[in-house]
Design a protein that fits this description.
The chain is globular. The chain has a six-stranded mixed β-barrel. Strands 2-5-4-8-9-6 form a six-stranded mixed β-barrel. The protein folds into two domains: 8-13 and 124-192, Barwin-like endoglucanases (Beta Barrel); 16-122, no CATH class. The two termini are 17 Å apart. 14% of the residues lie in helices and 45% in strands. The protein has helices at residues 23-29, 80-86, 130-136, 174-179, and strands spanning 8-15, 18-20, 36-39, 46-55, 60-68, 75-77, 92-93, 102-107, 112-122, 125-128, 143-148, 154-162, 169-173, 187-192.
Length: 193
């Protein structure tokens, strides 16, 4: 376990808008197979070459990345600034917590499908595996403060997300990163609440 007086730091990974799809929905929307553009830090996950358009009551956003591999649920994660463009008000939630979330339309060259309870703004979280969690003294869903020490510093809250394939990094979205002048790879302090 980490010495209680020793500070804990983690690296920032900035998430932009993206979608997770089931194999069934993917095949309704695309004729081509899901292919990897590049792997991401979380083991086994990747950004695909495939993109689509998301549409709300007021506007659309094109070239939204489909993430792989397939999931057992459909989910669109957007930014609050995207919500203004689309004309929706999605809740801030953990991944897969989609009850009473927003309705959006997914559009490809092949098809247009409107889905209820699909769209959220992702809650900030700190990924890690069981070994790292034990080393740092964290438990799943622990609430922590992220202490930003730069020209526009401040604090954000996040929760601990422990998965067997979890790579230790802090996931925030582009809006949070811009508000705190953070870039991918910047280090911030993680403090238990």
């Amino acid at each position: 376990m980490k010495n209680i007086k020793e500070k804990i730091y983690g690296k920032i990974a900035i998430s932009n808008r993206h979608v997770h799809l089931t194999k069934e929905l993917y095949e309704e929307l695309f004729d081509e197979p899901l292919t990897m553009k590049k792997p991401i830090s979380q083991i086994g996950e990747f950004a695909s070459n495939q993109t689509l358009t998301i549409k709300g009551p007021k506007g659309t956003i094109e070239r939204v990345r489909v993430m792989g591999p397939y999931r057992n649920y459909n989910q669109a994660e957007i930014l609050k600034s995207d919500a203004y463009i689309l004309g929706i008000n999605p809740p801030v939630r953990e991944s897969s917590d989609l009850e009473d979330s927003e309705t959006i339309t997914l559009v490809t060259d092949k098809k247009e499908i409107t889905l209820k309870n699909i769209c959220i703004i992702a809650e900030r979280h700190v990924h890690m595996n069981e070994k790292k969690a034990k080393e740092l003294g964290f438990k799943n869903d622990d609430l922590v403060k992220l202490i930003v020490n730069n020209d526009k510093g401040g604090e954000m809250e996040a929760f601990i997300k422990i998965k067997s394939n979890g790579f230790f990094e802090i996931h925030i979205d582009r809006d949070d990163a811009n508000a705190f002048l953070l870039n991918n790879g910047d280090e911030v302090e993680i403090r238990k609440i």
